[in-house]
Design a protein that fits this description.
There is one protein chain. The chain is of the alpha/beta class and 156 residues long. The strands form two sheets. Strands 1-2-3 form a three-stranded mixed β-sheet, sandwiched between helices. Strands 4-5-6 form a three-stranded mixed β-sheet. It starts with a helix and ends with a strand.
Length: 156
């Protein structure tokens, strides 16, 4: 059951069903993991089996606490790979959080003839095999949440 205010937000599209599902899930986990009580959950975005959870500044550490048990529980329950991102962070921090634990070698802007801009992210070549199944999902999450068009490359 939703309160009238939340129901209106859902109808207007200000929040999504995914937002409600993740919010409820985090609330049910608060008793087992008390640091979650102090986490500011902003939104959630899902693409191709990857769930990105946006939290307030400094809250990533709270979700990563307990030796990663919170993330593992979220992944087990949702059956998705979970990425925790800081809401309202700068582009570099967003990309580092999105691709963690992968190592970003460099980030560049590419201005295309049609006037559009792409962000080129170069990752270590050694991580290609581990990340290949998630690259499209991470690109989609970056586009949907931040409006960033990514071009992913690998280098030694």
């Amino acid at each position: 059951m939703l309160c009238p205010k939340c129901k209106k937000k859902l109808e207007k599209g200000e929040i999504s069903e995914l937002y409600l599902e993740v919010g409820r899930l985090l609330m049910t986990m608060e008793e087992e993991y008390p640091p979650l009580q102090n986490v500011n959950f902003h939104r959630a975005v899902e693409s191709n089996g990857v769930l990105a959870i946006f939290v307030g500044r400094g809250d990533i550490a709270k979700i990563l606490s307990y030796g990663g048990k919170i993330i593992k529980s979220l992944e087990r329950i949702t059956k998705k790979t979970v990425r925790v991102l800081e809401s309202n962070s700068d582009e570099r921090k967003f990309l580092e959080d999105l691709f963690a634990p992968m190592t970003i070698l460099t980030v560049n802007k590419i201005w295309l003839p049609d006037g559009s801009i792409e962000t080129r992210v170069i990752l270590k070549d050694a991580e290609r095999r581990r990340t290949s199944k998630y690259i499209d999902a991470l690109k989609e999450i970056a586009k949907e949440s931040q409006g960033i068009t990514l071009r992913i490359e690998f280098a030694a």
